[in-house]
Amino acid sequence: MIRRFFSYYTPHKKLFMIDFFSAVVVALLELGFPLAVQWFIDRLLPDGNWSTIVSVGCGLLALYVMSTFLQYIVNYWGHKLGINIETDMRQQLFQHVQKQSFRFFDNTKTGHIMSRITNDLFDIGELAHHGPEDMFIAVMTFVGAFWIMLTINVQLALVTIIIVPFLIWLITVCNIKMNKAWKQMYSDIADVNARVEDSVSGVRVVQSFTNENYEITRFTKNNRRFRKAKLSGYKVMSFSNSGIYMMTRFIILAVLIYGAWLSFNNHLSYGELVSFILYVNVLFKPVDKISAIMELYPKGMAGFKRFIELIDQDPEVVDQKGATEITYLHGDIEFEDVSFSYDEHKPVLERIDLSIQAGETIAFVGPSGAGKTTICSLIPRFYDVNEGRILIDGIDIREMTKQSLRSQIGIVQQDVFLFTGTLRENIAYGKLDATEEEIVEAARRAHLEEFIHSLPFGYETQIGERGLKLSGGQKQRIAIARMFLKNPPILILDEATSALDTETERIIQQALNELAMNRTTLIIAHRLATIQNADRIVVVTEDGIAEEGTHNELIQKGGIFAKLHQVQYEQQGV
Ligand code: ADP
Ligand code: MG
C-alpha cells in the first residue's frame, strides 16, 4: 500500500527532491542557530571586538535570508507537490469511473464517488505533501538536537529526555481520542449534509404536507450531534496542547535551575546554558509535528485505501482481443437462447429467442418489471449476456468494439438527461462535431424550431440546474434532435413518451415516426395506442416472451395483449 502510494511521486521526482532538499537545509540551519548563539556569548562577547561582531551579524543575516528563501520554496513547492499528486489522482479516478460498466453504477452510490473525488483526495494530497517530508525533518531535528545537547552537557541532556516518554504518552492518548472524535464528526457532518440535501430537494413535498417543523426538528438533532462531536474533539485537542505546553515549560524551568547550579560549579558556561535552553525548544518542536502527522496519516491513508479500492475495479464489459471496429450496421438483430440476470439468484431473462429484421419497427409491451428495458440494455452491451448470444448482421456483438457498436445504436428514454450548458450544446451532444446547419436541421426535424425562436437567447439559452427549466415534452424533443444528429441505424425508444400527457405525446409521436423511418426501431411502450403501427408486437411477461405478432393478429388471438388492449380501451377510450 505504501509503495503504491509512493508510486504517485514518480512523475514529480524533481519537485520532491527540490522540496525535500530545501526542507533539510532549513532544518540544519535551525539546528545550527543555538550553537552560533553559544559561540557569540562565550567567544565574541569577552573579546569585545565590535567589527567582528558586526561581520558575524552580517553573516547570520545572509544565512537568514537564504533560509527565508528556502522556506518559501518548501511552502510553495511542497504544496505544489501535494496538489499535483491530488490532481493526478482525481484525473485518474474520473477517467476510471467514466469507463465503468452499468453494473458498477448500480452498486455504487453517487455520493460516495463524489466524496472520493473531493474530500478523500484532499486528505491524500495533504498527506502526500507533509507526510514523508515532515516525518524525516522531525526525526532529523530531534536526533540532531539531542546529539548536540549531549555534547554540551550529558547530565542536562538526560534530564531533558526524561520528559519525552510522558509527552509521547500524552500525545498518543489524546490522538486516539481525537481520531475517534473526528471520525464521529465526519459521519455526523455527512448526516447533516444528507438532511439538507433531502429537505431542500424535497422542499415541495415538505411544504405541501406542512412538515417544516418536523424537518427542523430532525435537522436540529443532527446539527446538535455534530456540534457535540466537534466540540469533544476540540476539548481533547485543547487539553493536549495545554499538557504539551506545561510539560515543555516545566522542563525549561528544570534546565534553567539545574543549569544554573552546574554553571555555579563551573561545569557549564553562560553561552552553553543559553544555547541549551534554545535546544530544548528545537527538541520539542518535532514532537508537535509528529503528532500532526499522526493525525494526517490515518486520514490520508484511509482515503488512499478507498481510492485504490475504486481504481482496482476493472470495468465489466470490455473489448475482446481482436474485436473489430465496425463502421456500418444494417440492423438485423438476433437473440439466440439468451439468458441474463443482474444477480445470481434472480434470473431476469431465460432462454430468449428473438429475431428482428433490419428496418423493422418492433414494439415491446407487458407488465413493468417483466424485462423489456433489460432486453434493450443487452443490445448496446450495457451488460453482457450470461448465456446465449446476440448477433447484429450475423456478427456476435462481443466481437465488435464497444465504441463502434454503441455508435450504431441510439436510445431515447423516459428521463432525458440535460447537461448544464446551452441548448445548442445539449442538442449537439448527439454529434459533438456537428455543423451549425446540422444542428438547425435536427432541431427542425424534432419540432423544436418554434420553441427555440421564442427564446430571447435562442440556441444560446442556458438550461439545466440554474438555467431554463424545460417541460417533459421539450426535453424529449431535445433527445429526439440528438438522435437525428447521431443518425444510428438501430433505435431504441424506452417509454420515451410515457411520462407525457396524451396531447403532447401525439405531437412528439410525429417527430418519433420520422425518426424511426429507415431504421431498425425497438419501442417499449406503455400506451398501446402509440404502437398500433408497429410491424410486430412482442408481449413480454415475467416468464419471457408470451406472444408475438401484428396488432390485429394479437387482438384476434384473444390472449394477454387483447386483454391489455381491452382494459386500456375502456380506461382511456383509445
Ligand atoms: P421493464 O422494463 O419491463 O419494466 P426491467 O427490465 O427494468 O423491466 O426489469 C426487469 C427486472 O430486473 C425487474 O425485476 C427489476 O427489478 C430488475 N432490474 C432492473 N434493472 C436492474 C438493475 N440495474 N439491477 C438489478 N436488478 C434490476
Ligand atoms: Mg423499463
Notes on the protein architecture:
The chain is of the alpha/beta class. It has 19 helices and twelve strands. The strands form three sheets. A six-stranded mixed β-sheet has the order 6-9-10-3-11-12, sandwiched between helices. It has a four-stranded antiparallel β-sheet with strand order 2-1-4-5, covered by helices on one side. A two-stranded antiparallel sheet has the order 7-8. β4 (about 385-390) and β5 form a beta hairpin. It binds adenosine-5'-diphosphate (ADP) and magnesium ion (MG). Adenosine-5'-diphosphate binds near residues 371 and 372. InterPro entries: AAA+_ATPase, ABC1_TM_dom, ABC1_TM_sf, ABC_transporter-like_ATP-bd, ABC_transporter-like_CS, P-loop_NTPase, Type_1_exporter. This is ABC transporter ATP-binding protein. GO terms for molecular function: ATP binding. Keywords: ATP-binding, Membrane, Nucleotide-binding, Transmembrane, Transmembrane helix.
